[in-house]
C-alpha cells in the first residue's frame, strides 16, 4: 500500500492533521507530484503539509468573482472556492517584501501546470498591475512553490499582497537575493512561458 518509505511521513502528516481522515483519503489527497513514480515535491520536507481536495470539483457560483485565469490547453477561470478545492500545500515562509513569516496555504504550481496541460514547461505568472514573473519548471517541479490564497488561516488582504500571491518554501535553493522578484503578488494569471 505504501510503495515508498518517504511517503509515510506525508501520510502521517495528513492523518494527524485531519480528524477522521483515513488512508484512502490520504492517498487521494496526495498531489500527483508526491505520488509514487513521479519526480517532484518531496513529501514532509521543511514542515510542508498537503491538504485534501474537495470532491467533486465545485462549479462557480453566480456572482462569484474570478481570481485566477489558468491558460493552457484550454482557458479556465477559477474562483476562490474552486482554488480551495484543488490539491493544496501549507507551510510557514518568510515573505521578503513584508519582512514577516506567515503560514501560507495554496495550490502548488505543479498542480496548476498539470491541470493546464503544460507540466514541465516554465510558467509565466501575471499580476493585476502588469507585472510578469517567470518560474522555471525545474524549480516548481522540485519544490511546492504555490499560488497562496490564505495566510495564517485567513484570506490574504490586499495590504499583504493578496488575494493571490506566489510563495516559495523556506529552502536554501530559493534565496531572497535571487528569488524575491518572483514572489509575485496580486496574481491573476498562470500560463506556460512562450519562447
Any overview of this molecule?
The chain has six helices and eleven strands. With 195 residues, the protein is α+β, with helices and mostly antiparallel strands. The strands form two sheets. Strands 1, 4, 5, 8, 9 and 10 form a six-stranded antiparallel beta sheet that branches. Strands 3-2-11-6-7 form a five-stranded mixed beta sheet. α1 (6-17) crosses α2 (23-29). The N and C termini lie far apart (42 Å). Residues 1-45 have low confidence and may be disordered.
N- to C-terminal distance: 42 Å
The number of helical elements comes to 6
What value does the Rg take, in angstroms?
16 Å
Task: Determine the mean pLDDT.
Answer: 80
Largest beta-sheet details? 6 strands, antiparallel
- Beta strand count: 11
Strand-pairing-aware structural class:
alpha+beta
Residue windows where pLDDT falls under 50 for at least 5 positions: 1-45
**What's the helical proportion of residues?**
10-25%
How would you sum up this structure in a few lines?
This protein has helices at residues 6-17, 23-29, 80-85, 109-116, 137-142, 176-179, and strands at residues 49-51, 66-71, 75-79, 88-95, 100-108, 123-127, 132-135, 146-151, 154-155, 165-167, 187-192. With 195 residues, the chain is α+β, with helices and mostly antiparallel strands.
List keywords for this structure.
195 residues; alpha+beta; 6-stranded antiparallel beta sheet; 5-stranded mixed beta sheet; 11 strands; globular; disordered N terminus
SSE arrangement:
Blueprint: H1 6-17, H2 23-29, E1 49-51, E2 66-71, E3 75-79, H3 80-85, E4 88-95, E5 100-108, H4 109-116, E6 123-127, E7 132-135, H5 137-142, E8 146-151, E9 154-155, E10 165-167, H6 176-179, E11 187-192
Parallel strand pairs: 2-11
Antiparallel strand pairs: 1-4, 2-3, 4-5, 5-8, 6-7, 6-11, 8-9, 8-10
